[in-house]
Amino acid sequence: MKIFRVNMTNLTVTVEDVPQEWQGFGGRALTSAIIAKEVEPGCHALGAGNKLVFAPGLLSGTTAPSSGRMSVGGKSPLTGTIKESNVGGTASQKLARLGVKALIIEGQPQGDGFYSLHLDKNGIKIEEDKVLAGRGNYEVIKKLDEKYNEKIGIITIGQAGERKMLSANISIKDPDGGLRSAGRGGLGAVMGSKKIKYITIDDTEAPGVPVADPEKFKEAARVFAKGLTEHPVTGQGLPTYGTNVLVNIVNEAGGLPTRNFSTGRFDGANKISGETMYDIIVSRNGKPTHACHPGCVIRCSQVYNDKDGNYLTSGFEYETIWAFGADCCIDDLDIIARADRICDDIGIDTIETAVTIGVAMEGGVIPFGDGEGLLNLMGEIEKGSYLGRILGNGAEFTGKAFGVTRVPAVKGQAIPAYDPRSVKGIGITYATTTMGADHTAGYSVATNILKVGGDIDPLAKEGNLELSRNLQIATAAVDSTGLCLFVAFCILDNAEAFQAIIDMLNAQYGLSLTADDVTELGKTVLRTERAFNQGAGFTSRHDRLPEFFKKEACPPHNAVWDFTDEEIDAFWNF
Amino acid sequence: MELEIRLFTGLKCNNQELPCYGKQEFFLDVPEGTTVRELHRLLGIDPKTSLISLINGLSRPDEWVLKNKDRVGIFPPVGGG
Ligand code: SF4
């Protein structure tokens, strides 16, 4: 495999051998290693000095189940930290089959025009784009499917990325022409700053991914697939109800942030729950079960149709539904689905955007619960009006614009769907992760609320720091394999399935890794990322939750955030 | 004593002799001292399914003794994120 480097300053492409030190890396381990080595931490994230890196996971492109995840890395314009955003869709497998270990985009062209990249078995072509700039992601996909064919892999930014809004994401086409997002941290703005509107990937006659011991690989993949399909969460819960099954349990546990994080239960929870959504999807001939890439056996995604049975959105996730729903006090799934569709089309992170609207509601821009008002605000972002540009820059920016003090964000990134006062393990993750508030970095909710991988009291401090640390280390490793993080629900409970992952890696690369090596890889990733952040000026004082979590009790448990600074700082003792 | 019960994610009351048969959200009178496990059995929920029982928003073990006016939520294994 090779590293493909696109220099947008002089519009050249080079192909390089993978240095020895990066041979064992893929996904997040590789994007973070490249950014840490090649990007000056103090650079402006939207300037020529930043780089954007795409890296398929170590197992991507093979037959390993649920292994088509890709990491996108760079310095985040939203947080100022290093960023890895993990995404499904078909791009990862196609890049891997074309022998792309990583695609690095650097420099910045002169002028206002946009470009496109086309990757195929002959290499990379850079072309000027005169047609699709200014267009939404759905139109980009439609036009490119017409130009090439429906199999073409697509990575694209919408108007939000072109305008360099700090919440802009990068969208990846899924197998049915829907969109998956490298959502968090504004990497779409970085792609916009490089003046790349879209990347097409044609893997026709691609060499494919070599596997050192195909028999061993096949056997390990079989054991892994069996583990996933037999576990009640990855085999039943997620395929049937999707991630949105969480609304009811998190609400019942008093941790569903409601009304801009002022309480932990939402009266309308059941109306926006996964169970209700399932009934709506089935009644409108949508798809309750859908895979975001070929070969995912968990298939947590879905296709949600409007009242007339026409496609409205897909990959309709818990986080999105919570944020536009409970956090903004909207109990109408159709309004939330329309907001999600606009986010996908203009290419903006749903979590950041919806939490931002919650903050704007608190600031009096529109009342809580005003669904039509919410869609109007989405329209402002789409138009790029001055108000839209404020909102498109995220929760912290908007909080400042409207004088709001209850702004749920860490290191500039909006806090997702679990109140840290009532789910303390996830609070530690929000505070300490190198990414800015991010639930996926160390999903303590699994053990605090869902009782997967043990049972640790969500309201007490005991055990939660260690829980978050262990999960963050394991996650950094999983994010490097190309496996979807949701495999964790299975491997936390099933040692055989966990071993199967190591067996697959060993069979593919001809290695003899042990579980300890995997843990070491996770630690190395976290240390690399932290060192970058320290270079960018971050200290332990940034590993803190906003003040209001300490001062305002969260009903129904009336919990407050009570970890001391010293306790939080012990996180990094590993 | 009276309990406020919500069953989620496909679970429902399977006991034909109860007024809440087939329902997911209901109030139910049960004898004093009823445990979480006894409630599962009373509602006819398959004991092989590993359940999460939240009593007033807090996860409680199957031997937990319920009290009058408790809010009970019962879930099969779920995940997401
Ligand atoms: S479990 Fe869901 S998010 Fe993960 S790879 Fe499968 S469809 Fe995509």
Description of the structure:
The complex is a heterodimer of chains A (574) and B (81). Chain A has 574 residues and is an alpha+beta fold. In chain A, 39% of the residues lie in helices and 15% in strands. Chain A folds into 3 domains: 2-201, Aldehyde Ferredoxin Oxidoreductase,  A, domain 1 (4-Layer Sandwich), CATH 3.60.9.10; 213-241 and 420-574, Aldehyde Ferredoxin Oxidoreductase Protein, subunit A, domain 3; 244-418, Orthogonal Bundle (Aldehyde Ferredoxin Oxidoreductase Protein, subunit A, domain 2). The two termini of chain A are 33 Å apart. In chain A, a hairpin with a 2-residue loop joins strand 16 and strand 17. The model of chain B has no long low-confidence stretch (mean pLDDT 95). Chain B is built from 1 helix and 5 strands, in the order ββαβββ. The N and C termini of chain B lie far apart (37 Å). The A-B interface holds A 232-234, 236-238, 240-246, 248-249, 252-254, 274-275, 300, 317-319, 439-440, 443, 445-446, 449-452, 455, 459, 485-486, 489, 556-557 and B 6, 8-10, 50, 52, 54, 56-59, 73, 75-81. The site of iron/sulfur cluster has 12 residues of chain A, from loops.
